[in-house]
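Summary of Year 1 activities. Much of the first year was spent building the evaluation harness for sequence design. The harness presents a backbone, in tokenized form, and records the residue chosen at every position. We chose the following record to illustrate the format because it has been used consistently in internal testing since the harness was completed.
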């Protein structure tokens, strides 16, 4: 906006300056003979100024329109970037959800016949594209997931671990259920912060349940 005002004032100054220079150097100079009378000069001056001012207005309007188009393009790019960032975070959450869902199924099995590890390599690839504010917490979730899969192996081969197995199954089932219950609106993306606040809370509850059982 400020640049546009400067441009318009400069244009007006130049438009007014040229006729003044002509008048001082040519029309008002008695040593120079010209075939232009004062009425003719003022007629020229009116046409000139009218055309000059019209041109300045058109150019100023064009520049303003280009500025608005550029701002709109930048806004679209920023929006697309935000959407891609949200998709990246949701991919992380959905992968965590799938891993815990698989773990729940393992605890539901009578025998531990699946020695599949958590796909932490894929998860660590995902977090490379997350916002830096959330990377440390995402890494912690991956570490906790690895620990849960390792705990599953240990519990399977522990004697008289039925109660512990059932407890783990219940709290992991509750965690999976809470992740599934997160309100999703496909037509409206939530800010990334809201996703993390929700997941932080449900994982905090999950960890509290684990610690509570340890103290029994």
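For this record, the design step produced the sequence shown next.
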């Amino acid at each position: 906006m400020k640049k546009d005002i400067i441009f318009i004032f400069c244009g007006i100054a130049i438009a007014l300056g040229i006729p003044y220079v002509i008048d001082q150097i040519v029309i008002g100079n008695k040593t120079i003979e010209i075939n232009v009378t004062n009425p003719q000069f003022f007629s020229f001056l009116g046409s000139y100024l009218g055309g000059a001012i019209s041109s300045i207005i058109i150019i100023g309007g064009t520049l303003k329109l280009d500025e608005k188009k550029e701002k709109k393009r930048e806004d679209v790019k920023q929006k697309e970037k935000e959407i891609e960032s949200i998709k990246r975070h949701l991919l992380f959450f959905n992968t965590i959800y799938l891993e815990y869902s698989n773990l729940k199924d393992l605890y539901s099995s009578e025998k531990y016949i699946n020695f599949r590890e958590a796909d932490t390599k894929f998860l660590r690839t995902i977090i490379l594209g997350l916002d830096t504010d959330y990377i440390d917490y995402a890494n912690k979730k991956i570490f906790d997931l690895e620990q849960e899969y390792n705990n599953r192996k240990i519990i399977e081969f522990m004697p008289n671990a039925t109660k512990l197995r059932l407890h783990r199954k219940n709290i992991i089932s509750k965690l999976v259920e809470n992740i599934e219950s997160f309100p999703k609106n496909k037509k409206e993306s939530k800010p990334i912060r809201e996703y993390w606040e929700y997941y932080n809370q449900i994982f905090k509850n999950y960890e509290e349940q684990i610690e509570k059982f340890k103290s029994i």
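Helices lie at 2-27, 38-108, 120-126, 132-156, 162-180, 192-214. Quantitative recovery figures across the full test set are reported in Table 2.
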